[in-house]
Amino acid sequence: MARIKLVLAFLALVLLAAGGVAVAYYWKKVFRPNLEMEHQIEHADGKNGKVEAPDLGNREFEAAVDLLKEGELISARDRLYYLMKFYPESASFPEAKRIVGDINMDLLISRVPLPKKQEHVVGRDYLSTIARKYDTTLDYIMRANGRTTTTIYPGDRLTVYPLNFTVVVDLAANAVRLEEDGQFFCEYPIRKVNLPPTLKAPAETTVSEKVAWKDGRGVSFDKRDYFGATKWIRTGKIGLFIRAFDPSKEEPKKEEKDDATAANSVDDFGVMVDRSDLEEMFTVLRTGSPVKLVK
Predict the structure, then answer these.
(1) With contact defined as beta carbons under 8 Å apart, do 242 and 250 qualify?
(2) HSE of 71 in the Cβ direction (CA atoms, 13 Å)?
(3) What is the DSSP letter of 31?
(4) DSSP designation for 249
(5) Pairing of strands 290-294, 165-170
(6) Please, which residues bridge with residue 187 across strands?
(7) Please, what is the end-to-end C-alpha distance for the chain in angstroms?
C-alpha cells in the first residue's frame, strides 16, 4: 500500500510540474508579448512615435490580390467580402469595396456562370417579354450577350439574370450603393446632390421610370440614338432623380453672386453621378427596384 501511495505522489508531482511548464510557456509565448505590446501602446509618446496595432485587413487584401493575379475572381471577391465584414477599419477597406464592385459587375455582364444566371432559348419571343419573364432589363440582355441590334431569331441563346437590386442613396457616405439580397454589390460616388428641402432622409420609394431623350425628344430602346441619349432614373419621390453630372452646368462660385441670384440659379433636382456610372445603373436597375434615401 505504501508503494502505491508513493507512485501516486510521484504522478501528482509530474502533473504539477507539467502544468507549471505549460503556464510558463503560455506566459512567455502569448501573455507576456501581448502585455508588452499593450504597455508600449499606453506609454509611447509623441517623440518616440506611437505604436499602432497591426492592420489585419491588409493580410486579407494581399491574399485577394494574389488570387486576382491568378484569375480567381470569385475567390478574390469572397476574400475581400471577408475583409469588409471583419475589418471595416482597415486602410484597405475603401479599395477592397471598389474592387468588389468591379468584380461583381464584370461577373454579371460576362458569360461567367453564376448561380442565378440562366440561358433562354428564343422561340416566338420579343426582348421585352424575355426581360419581363426573367426580371431583367433590355439593356442587360444587350450588354451581357454582346448584341448591337434588338433583332432576335428563334434558336438564339441569351444569357439572362434576375436584377433584384436595392438602391441606397447614402448621403453620409456620399455614394449610391447597390445591394443584392442585403449584401453590398457595388457603389458609385455622388458628384453632387440637390434635393428639395421637403425631402428628408430616411425615405423609401421605388424606381418609377427610366427616361432617355435626345434633342428634347424621347428615345426608345430600339432607336440608334438610345446609347448616346441623356438618361434619368426617376423615383416615386419628387426631386429624387439619379442623373449624370454635367460640370458645364455647375453654378458660379458663391462669392461671385448674391443670395438672390443663387436662389434662382440652382441646378435641377437630383443625385448626380458620373455619366459612365449612370449608364451602368441604367443597365441593371428595373422599374420597381427599391430605393432608400439614408443619412
Answers:
(1) no
(2) 1
(3) I
(4) G
(5) parallel
(6) 177
(7) 79
**Could you give the 3-state DSSP secondary structure of residue 246?**
coil
For cell 458645364, the residue is: 248
Which of the four pLDDT bands, split at 50, 70 and 90, describes residue 214? confident
- 255: which 3 cell numbers? 462669392
Three-state SS for 114-159 is: CCCCEEEECCCCCHHHHHHHCCCCHHHHHHHCCCCCCCCCCCCEEE
Q: Which domains does the chain have, with CATH numbers?
A: 56-109 (no CATH), 118-160 (3.10.350.10), 165-294 (2.40.440.10)
Tell me how many helices (H) and strands (E) the chain has: 9, 11
Q: Which residues contact 272 (CB under 8 A, 6 or more apart)?
A: 190, 191, 192, 193, 194, 243, 244, 245, 246
Distance between CA 236 and CA 211 in Å, rounded? 14
Cα–Cα distances (Å) from 174 to 192, 194, 250, 254, in that order, read 9, 12, 18, 21
Retrieve residue 219's grid coordinates. 428615345
Span 237-277, pLDDT tens digits? 999 999 999 887 765 555 544 443 444 344 589 999 999 99
Burial status of residue 267 (CB atoms within 10 A of its CB: 0-12, 13-18, 19 or more): middle
pLDDT score for 10: 43
- Residues 210 and 222: beta-carbon distance below 8 Å: no
Q: Residue 273 in contact with residue 193, Cβ under 8 Å?
A: no
Does residue 37 surpass a pLDDT of 90? no
Tracing cell 505604436 back to the chain, one arrives at: 51
Encode pLDDT of 116-166 as tens digits.
999 999 999 899 999 999 999 999 999 999 988 889 999 999 999 999 999
What is the reported pLDDT for 48? 55
